[in-house]
UniProtKB/TrEMBL annotation:
It comes from Nitratireductor mangrovi. The chain crosses the membrane at residues 23-44. The lineage of its organism: Bacteria, Pseudomonadati, Pseudomonadota, Alphaproteobacteria, Hyphomicrobiales. This is CoxF protein. The keyword Transmembrane helix applies. Keywords: Membrane, Transmembrane, Transmembrane helix.
Amino acid sequence: MATEDKGITLTPAQAKARRARSVAIALALAAMVVIFYFATIAKFGPALFERAL
């Protein structure tokens, strides 16, 4: 190949929007993990911590 394809070049506004979307997705995923964790603790109750390992 004589010419190299550099791919898509984003404008600064597009790069900023992509970063904002990525941060929003990461926060939503982290919130879902926390919700699932506390829902599991609430479902099993204190007995979860008193079991034998």
